[in-house]
Amino acid sequence: MCGDDYLQKTTFDSYLYKRVVPGNPLDDLKLASNTIGSLVMASMLKREMAKLAS
Predict the structure, then answer these.
(1) Residue 4 has what pLDDT?
(2) How do the domains of the chain map onto residue ranges?
(3) What mean pLDDT is predicted for residues 41-49?
(4) DSSP states of 1-54
(5) What superkingdom heads the lineage (predicted)?
(6) How far apart are CA 29 and CA 44, in angstroms?
(7) pLDDT of 16-32, one tens digit each?
(8) Distance between CA 16 and CA 40 in Å, rounded?
(9) Which residues make Cβ contacts (< 8 Å) with residue 24, sequence separation at least 6?
(10) Which pLDDT score is estimated for 2?
(11) What is the C-alpha separation between 25 and 6, in angstroms, rounded?
């Protein structure tokens, strides 16, 4: 996630201008879906690791 150019630019601009910079709604949706996908993958990996540890 931290390698996402959109996230880096939005974060930097918000920090630079000391206010929340409005984003592109389509890119915001893409970022949200990537975040949810990462959480799902982490959950699946956790379950697989638990199976291996048993």
Answers:
(1) 87
(2) 5-53
(3) 95
(4) -TT-HHHHHHHHHHHHHTSPPP--HHHHHHHHHHHHHHHHHHHHHHHHHHHHH-
(5) Eukaryota
(6) 23
(7) 999 998 889 999 999 99
(8) 33
(9) 6
(10) 74
(11) 11
- Return the percentage of the chain with pLDDT > 90, whole number: 81
Q: Which amino acid is at 32?
A: A
- Written in H, E and C, the secondary structure of 17-30 is HCCCCCCCHHHHHH
- Encoded tokens for 11: 């974060």
What's the half-sphere exposure (Cβ side, CA atoms, 13 Å) at 8? 5
7 and 31 in contact (C-beta within 8 Å)? yes
Nearest-angstrom CA–CA distance, 50 and 1:
25
User: Once rounded to an integer, what is the mean pLDDT over residues 40-51?
Assistant: 95
- Which residues does 34 contact at the CB level (< 8 Å), separation at least 6? 1, 4
Within 8 A by CB and 6+ apart from 27, the residues are: 6
